[in-house]
Amino acid sequence: MIEFWEVVHRSETGELMEERKYDRLLGQKAKEIVNRYQIKYNPEQVIPSDDALADRIFEAALDLFIEIGMYNADTGRVMKFSKKEVLESLETAVDHIVWGEGRDQKVMFPRRPEDSRPVFCNFTLVGTPYPEELFLKACISTAQEPLANCFSGPSLLHTLGGIEVRSGSPMEVEAAIWDIGQRREAARRAGFPGKGIYTMVSTAEKADAMIAAARPEFGALARDGMLNGAIAELKVDNDRMKKAVFLRRTSYTSGGLYGPLMGGYAGGPEGTCLILIAHHFLGRLAFGTEYSVCFPVDIHQVCNTTRQMLWLVSRSHQALARNTHLLHFANTFIAAGPCTEMACYELTAHGITAAVSGANLSPAASARNKYPERCTGMEGRICAEAAHSATRMGLTRSEANRIVKEILLKYEKDIPNAPIGKKFSECYDLEKVKPSKEYVELHERTKEEVKKTGFVYAF
Amino acid sequence: MSNILEAMAQSVIDGDQEVACRLAKEGIGKGIDPVLAIEEGYAKGMETIGTSFEAGDCFLPEVLLAEEAMTAAIEILKPKIEERMTKKASKGKIVIGTIQGDVHDIGKNIVKLFLGVAGYEMIDLGRDVPVRAFVETAKKQRPDIIMVSALMTTTMVYMPELIKQLEELGIRDQFKVIVGGAPVIPEWAKEIGADGYGKNTKEAVEVALKLLQTQKS
Fold it and tell me: CA nearest A176: which of A135, A137, A148, A124?
């Protein structure tokens, strides 16, 4: 088993390479390996059922990672690993996480494709910008949802107590400490004081600020999570690896955050699928991850609910679920904003896809994760209801493929011009922190439409 | 002549550096104006690739290959351009970078790529660029435009700081400032006093071109 410090050593002694050259090599290798393994996106098989192909994709991702390695952007060096080292790192990963404490404690297990066990759901606002005065209520909107096994919150829109929060400044540390406190307070107010937090801070980027916030007196529970993102396709840097050192010595849960861009350096859906899987090897080796959050997005549409992206989501999670016991969340990114019919369909399609493909679920970023206050807990509810219903009805991948394709017809042509929807304050009663009647009724109406495909809602 | 220009364009579309270079040499042999070869040949190919990329019909690796083919061909044509004293002046100079604290730079790299092949001189400061580095580079390099991207709410707040520093130094009116990146929205860009905003890479390129044209006219 490769030691973490050996990984650090390789990041300081591996082959020196210009970053630009590494980026190009990555695209070339991905293309070459996609051809080698004959992996081909099929728009009619949005949720494919071919197990052999899922396994080939996993093998292809392994080849890719072994041949290209990962890049440390600070040292400009490539770290390479043997197949044995990668497989050992996967074998030694945890096979479950106990999130939260007391009666709010929830256990996350790895799932398999067509698994009848419920999907473990994290409700998140994926860093959508919120001003200080709405921050707590936004957190409550996710924490209060009964289907949220754990939860997370938004990002802070610029100021705290009138002082601007800048990355790398002292105020970033202050904001990070405030952020975890708001999240824990939201859980308390929602009546789930021990609910797990899957990422303690979204208001900070730097390792020092995140580490400073991770203390029980600020609101962190023993197994609350801290995310460590790859900075771009198969790249890490020293700031992120610093967090890994801290996480190795504490009880907090180490998460990997992977968002390769489909259409970017890795090429099309096939190459990006391999890169997404390869990021899990990076995460195990460089960060010691215990869970992962996968948010591949289309480089132009900034969502993962297009036909190509759903294929990528399904294929990558099936490959991981069949070949590892890793704990992986599919992170829903939709084009439309809250309280729109289109958002309801996108969330439903993604929820079903993730559920039958062996993923756990982390909904959702709305309105392309761009507009302030345009992401709420209600999107998580819509997505999770679909995912739970898919497992309850024992949906096969083949049947899910038919249903999701019917749902896709309702929205895919509108993706380039998706409506940004309503702000939190426009689709929630802010006093009670409850979704508006309009939003709830819209959800029920779209459920009726989805039922016409033969999909059965459990509740 | 149109055949060879079409072939030049096609070599870029195919990302075929070898063919692009062979055609550049052939063009010189046949006495084709090198500026014409670039503008009506290779650049047309790049334009086609750019349109395909935006439509999702091709991906970044193909764009990078096309750019490499075009750059290699231009290197061959360069001495001839200089010989004829028709050296084409750069269409404009742009300083570009991802702002302080932010390491996410793929969008910035794509914008740089397209503006570079369109004939603009690009000074790429990279990622996590301190505000002061933007200011110092602008003072030294005298660009037409400063383009800044950010992916985080905690890093985008350095954008107004950049504009403020340019104002304090009394040099704000010497440069156009364009901002972009995931959390940046047009209202905010306007509020901080930016001259332009791109909601995506395509729009960022278009806005830069428009601002440069306005400036020149």
Answer: A135
Q: Around Cβ A441, how many Cβ atoms within 10 Å?
A: 11
Q: Which chain A residues contact residue B60 at CB under 8 A?
A: 27, 263-265, 267, 299
Instruction: List CB contacts (< 8 A) between B127 and chain A.
Output: 73
Domains and CATH numbers, chain A: 97-451 (3.20.20.460)
Contact indicator for A244, A216 with CB cutoff of 8 Å: no
Q: Output the 3-class SS for B85-111.
A: CCCCCCCCEEEEEEECCCCCCHHHHHH
Nearest CA in chain A to B54: A300
Cβ–Cβ contact A2 with B under 8 A: no
User: Which residues share a beta bridge with A428?
Assistant: A435
Give me the architecture of the B2-84 domain, per CATH: Orthogonal Bundle (1.10)
Among A73, A80, A89, A5, residue whose Cα is nearest residue A239: A73
Residues A121-139: what's their mean pLDDT? 95
Give domain B93-216's CATH number out of 3.50.50.60, 3.40.50.280, 3.40.309.10, 2.60.40.420: 3.40.50.280
Q: What pLDDT is stored for residue B113 in this prediction?
A: 83
Q: Is the Cβ pair A129, B61 closer than 8 Å?
A: no
Give kind and range of the element (H or E) at residue A205.
none
At A442, list the tokens.
């819209």
The residue count for chain A: 459
What letters, b where the CB count within 10 A reaches 16 and e where it falls short, cover B65-86?
bbbbbbebbbebbeebbeeeee
Which whole number is the average pLDDT over A359-382? 96
**pLDDT tens digits, A137-187:** 999 999 999 999 999 999 998 899 999 998 889 999 999 999 999 999 999
Q: Which helix (H) or strand (E) holds A114?
A: none
Average pLDDT over residues B64-92: 76
- Classified as helix, coil or strand, A329 is strand
Which residues from chain A sit within 8 angstroms of residue B185, using beta carbons? 370-372
Give the H or E element holding residue A107. Answer: strand A106-108
pLDDT of residue B217: 66
Q: Is the pLDDT of residue A338 over 60?
A: yes
Domains B2-84 and B93-216 in one fold? no
Output the pLDDT for position B182. 82
Token pair 């010497």 is found at: B174
All structural domains of chain B with their residue ranges: 2-84, 93-216
Please tell me the distance in Å from B48's CA to the nearest CA on chain A.
16
The chain B residues in contact with chain A (CB within 8 A) are: 53-54, 56, 59-62, 64, 100-106, 127, 152-155, 157-158, 161, 182-183, 185, 200
pLDDT for B57-72, tens place per residue? 899 889 888 988 988 9
For residue B61, list chain A residues with Cβ-Cβ distance below 8 A.
24, 27-28, 30-31, 265-267, 271
More confident residue, B127 or A443: A443
pTM of the model: 0.91
Instruction: Number of A to B CB contacts under 8 A, please give it.
Output: 95
Average pLDDT over residues A81-88: 98
Q: Which residue has the higher pLDDT, B11 or B114?
A: B11
